[in-house]
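It is worth pausing here to work through a concrete case rather than discussing structure prediction in the abstract. The textbook approach is simple: state the sequence, then state the predicted structure, then interpret. We follow exactly that order.
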Amino acid sequence: MRICVILEGCYPYVTGGVSSWMHQYIQAMSQHEFVLWVIGADSKDRGKFKYTLPENVVEVKELFLNDALTMSFRKKRYKFNDYELEQLKQFIECGTPDWDTLFHIYHDNSVSPIAFLMSEDFLDILTKICLEDYPYTAFSDFFHTVRSMMLPVLYILQSEVPKADIYHAVATGYAGVLARLGNYVNHVPYMITEHGIYTREREEEIIRSNWVLPAFKKFWVRFFYMLSGCAYEKASLITSLFGRARELQIEMGCKPRLCRYIVNGIHYDRFCNIPYKQPDGWTDIGAVLRIAPIKDVKTLLYAFADLKSRVPNVRLHVCGPEDDKEYAQECYNLVEMLKLKDVFFPGTVNVLEKMREFDFTILTSISEGMPLSVLESFAAGRPCVTTDVGCCKELLNGMSPDDDLGRAGLCAPPIHREALSEAMEYLCVHPEERYKMGLVGKERVRRYYLHADMIKNYLKAYEEVFARWQASDSV
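Step two, the predicted structure:
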């Protein structure tokens, strides 16, 4: 089987999280061929892979959104009919366009996105929307906002589509649109897997952002809902990582019968024999993450400062790449401003080796799915402090109905420095309880979160997709 996995902003350009998951996923399915159709932000990253690709990766197609800005103006005669103009209006106002019509215009007929965005048709549509919905907003601001939204989408619609037996988008957003484009062009099925709910994550980012004008925040949110709607609409199967995520997908319009959740799994045997740290008078806390706003490292640093005032012999190791260099520098500056001692930023580390130094771990994200770092911490017998996002609380306390093992760590509300500080303090001053929680986490992973089981479940998902596709084809 030839599987085209479609990824945005992760593998193979960055390490950890979804990238680590994807790399191990491909390695575990060595009997199948994989095509990587990968979306990045900036073409300067072309070919700069952080992974040595497995041998069963037979093709890589790179697509960079900033290349949309370098498209040349191609004046090609094309007369939009009334239906096409209505679908373009739906697209521009972030409604519910007929995506097959957009594919026909921009992929089949190669109509120039630049030509359209400079046309009277576009200006007429935009003017009507602005007068109706944004009468007190500068038209130039609205024009540039809409253009920055629509240009990358129209650009990717003109992409050359790789051949595959199935398209598997590991997110909605731009990746989901490409999966549906693959379905349209090559008449094969596609499925969606969401580790976090893409639209909700973008919504949180936009609400907190400074780069989006306040008047257009709701409009940007609608834009990402539109892209997710495109992906969901014709997918043969939609998977998530836990029950609540599945419920959110259904609330956003997915058909319940198409939704499954498949839990993450890790290589338990790699972690279960990592020795515990020998007592040395210090408590060492590990945070294995990408240094990025969504991981909320700043709240972690504030919480650690509170903890340090009460528990002097404690150290914090923030391990992981600078996913956002500007944010990383703000974190380093915050350490200096707070005059924090015993905080270390070792960068990307070998987690198997570094875990030996930790007594427990912490994750302070404002959004998560089912974080591998928590499962790896558990498998090594280290309890975890997490924020109550994604299914972190369920991982700590047990998600399966027959899981009565107990708690494997402590949970706090996101962006709550006091609660996080108190949770860390509890694990620092109760070493026996910490050890017991670590044993619970280790057993929980052994029973419920093995990588081999996860791979079996995804192979079954592919079988289900093909069965559905063949059934629909025969009708």
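Step three, interpretation. The chain is about 45% helix and 15% strand. The domain at 268-449 is CATH 3.40.50.2000 (Rossmann fold).
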